[in-house]
Amino acid sequence: MTEVSELQATQTDPNKIYVDDSMGSMMSAMSATTSNNLVKFKKYLDDNYDQIKDSVSDIQYTYNFDLQIFTADGKTQVSPTTIFDNMGDAFSGIGEMINSMGGAGFNVMSEMINNQELLDEQYELVGENSRWPQNANEVVLVVGPNNQISKMTLYMLGVLDQSELEDIMNDLMVNGVYDTTPLEPYDLDDFLGMEFLLLNTSDFYAKKENASYTVGDTSYPIWYDMREEIFDQEKFVTENGTKLTISGIVRPKEGATATSISGAIGYTKALTDFILEQNTTSDVINQQKATPDYNVLTGLKFERTVYTRENIQELIDKVDDATMEKLYAYMTQQILQNKDFADQLVVSSPESFLGFFGIMPSEYRVELLTLMLNIAQQKDPTGMSLAPIMAVLSSTTNGVTVTANNMISLMPILSTQQLMLALVGMEANEQMPMSVPGLIALCGEEAMQQIYAGMTERIKTLTITEESFKLLLQGNFIPDDQFATMEEMLYSLAPQTDATYDSVLKELGAAEKASPASINFYAKDFESKDTLEAFIKEYNEGVEEADRLKYTDVVGLMMSSVSTIINAISYVLIAFVAISLVVSSIMIGIITYISVLERTKEIGILRAIGASKKDIRRVFNAETLIVGFVAGMIGILATLFFNFIINIILFELTGLASLKAALPVAAAVILVVISMFLTFIAGLFPSGFAAKRNPVEALRSE
Asked: In which region does residue 97 sit, left (phi positive, over 0), alpha (psi from -120 to 50) or beta (all else)?
C-alpha cells in the first residue's frame, strides 16, 4: 500500500493507478500513543542532578500504587471511590467517573513536595500543638483559609459514617433534596493525633490451598485477593497495618499565590519510600517477577485475545460509550474539517463503491439502490436482466419473494450482505453454471461513474455513527491490515480485557523506586524552567529515538500566548506614549521660545552687564531642567496616589492581596531623569536663539 504523503513526495507514473490508503492513515493516527522511558531518564537524572539542583525546588516522583488506608479501628477504608462502589449498582459508576476525571475534587491523600522551606512559604500551622511531619508515619491535615474542611472529606476520612452517603445521594438524585443543615464545628484536638492504619495492596493476597502451577522444575502457589471473599477485615487491618498519625493541621498562608498539597491529607516522601521498600519484600510480587510468563492469580500463561470480524462487537462493547462517541466524533471531524483528508476519499471503482456503501446511512443507501434500479429498468424495460439477481436474492430471504418493485420496501429486513449480493451479483459455480450480474454491472460504466462522483461528494458530509462503524468493521470493506490496526486501537481503549504481566503487577501495587509513573519538576522561576528544558534536550540528544522524552510544555505555551498578547498591547501603548512625548517636547520648546520672546529686554540687560552667550543659554537650559524635574516629580506622586486607589479596586474585584500595582524606586528615578532629559532637549533651540540675540536690539524692545 502506498500512502498519499508518500505519493506526493515521489515521482508518479501518469499511466498507472496508485492505491490510496487514507483509511489506514486515519486509523494509524487514532491508534498512535506516546510512552516515555522514565526508568532510563530517572537514572540519567540521578546521575546528573548537580546540573539542575539550583534550578528546582523539588523533583517529585509518582508511582502506580493505591494507598490502602483504614481508620484506626480497621472498619472503614479511607478512599475516594470505593465508597460509591459499596452503595450498589446505582452508584458503582461514580467511582470510575471520578477516576476518569483525575479524582480532582475527591483526592484525600497526596504526597507533599520534599522542600520544607517552600511548604513554610505556602502554609502555616494551625494550633499550638501542630507540627510538620518528622517521621514517615506522620501526616498533616490541610484545611481551607478559614479553617474549613469539606463534608465529603469527613466522609472520606471516616469521621462521618460513610453508610449515610447512599441515603444522601438517593435524596439528591431521586428527590432533588439535599440537607444543608450546617454541622457543628470541630475542635483542633479532634483531628490532631488522629490515627490511621496503612497496608500495601499486596498484603491482602494470600496463597490458595492445594493450588499451584509449575515453571520448569519449580512449583509456585496460586494467590487470591482475600477481599473478594468473606474475611475479618477489622482484625486483619489492626494486626497488620502500619500506624499513621496526624501530627499537624495546616492552612494556606494569606496572600500565598500557589499551594502544592492537592489532597486533604499530605504525607511525606519518606512514606512513599517506605511503601516502595515494603514492595521489595512482598512474596506475591517477587513471585510474579520470577515467573513473568504466568499469572500468579490464575496459574495460567498470559495470552492476549485476538478479535476477528465475527466477534469484534464483543470488543466494542467493552469500550465505554463516551470513549466510542469521541472516536466517532474524531473520524467525522477528519472527514468534515480536514480538507486534505476528505479529498483523499474518492469513489472511483466498484471496490471503493462497495466499501463506502457499507458505512453510508440507511436513507442514502435507499436513494442509491432506487437510482440504480431505475437505471437498470430503463436499460431493460422487460425486466429480464433483473430477474436472475432477484431470484438469487429471494433464495436468501426464507420464503420472501424479492422483486424490482418491492426491493426498496424490503430493505429494512435485508442484511448488508444481501444488499451487497444485489450490487455485485454472483459468479458461476457448480450449482449455478452461469454467473448472475449485479446492479453495478447492469447500470453500466457510464452511469456508475456519475454515481461514483455523487457518492464522493456525499462522503464529505458523512457522519460516522455506531451503525456505520460496526458495518465498517464487521463487513469485508477494509483490508485485513487496516482491520488489525483498528482492533489494536479498540483494544487499547477498552478496560483491561486480558490480564498481562504489567496489569497484574499494577493490581498487586508493585511500584518500584526506579520506575516512576511520572516525574514532576518544581522550577524555582521561569529562567529555571528554561534550564530544565535544556537539560531534557541534552538527554534526548544522547539517547536513541525510542528513549527520547516527548512532552508538552503547557505552561510555556500558555505563557507564550499571554506574552504575545501583552507584547502587542505594550507596543500599542509605547506608540501612544512616544507620540505624547514628541508632542510634549514640541510644546515645551514652544513655551520656552515664547518665554524667550517675552524676556527679550531681560536678555539685553544681562548681556549689557557682562553676561556671555553661554550664560544666557545656561539660564534657559537650567529653567527647562527644573521644569522637567518638577513635572517628573508630579508624575511620580500622581502615580503613587493612583496606585493606592487601583490596589484597593483590584483587591475588591479579585480578593488577591498579592495582586498589586507598584512603582519601583529605580523606575521612578529613571522616569524623572527621562523627563529632565526630554525638557532639556526641547529647550536647546529656544536657549540658543536667546543667546544669539543682539544686546542693543534686545534693550530697545518693550
From this structure: alpha
Instruction: Reply yes or no on whether the pLDDT at 203 is more than 90.
Output: yes
Please provide the DSSP assignment of 497-552 as one string: -S--HHHHHHHTT--BTTB-SEEEEEESSHHHHHHHHHHHHHHHHTS-GGG-----
- Which contacts qualify for 214-219: CB closer than 8 Å, 24 or more apart? 215/291, 215/293, 215/294
| Phi then psi dihedrals of residue 258, to 5 deg | -155, 150
Cα–Cα distances in angstroms (integers) from residue 102 to residues 67, 95, 262, 673, in the given order:
16, 11, 12, 55
What digits encode the pLDDT tens for the residues 638-656? 888 888 888 888 778 776 6
Residue 684, C-beta contacts closer than 8 angstroms, at least 6 positions apart: 621
Distance CA 696, CA 594 (A): 20
- Residue 5: pLDDT band (50, 70, 90) is very low
CB 1 within 8 A of CB 19: yes
3-state secondary structure of 402: coil
User: What is the signed CA dihedral for 559, 560, 564, 566, rounded to 10 degrees?
Assistant: 20
Contact 60, 111 (CB under 8 A): yes
Residue 510 near residue 338, CB atoms below 8 Å: no
Q: Rounded to two decimals, what is the model's pTM? A: 0.57
3-state class (DSSP) for residue 296: coil
Q: Which of 64, 78, 183, 98 is nearest to 141 (CA)?
A: 78
Q: What Cα–Cα distance (Å) separates residue 10 from each residue in 19, 20, 303?
A: 14, 14, 42
CA 174 to chain CA centroid, Å, is 33
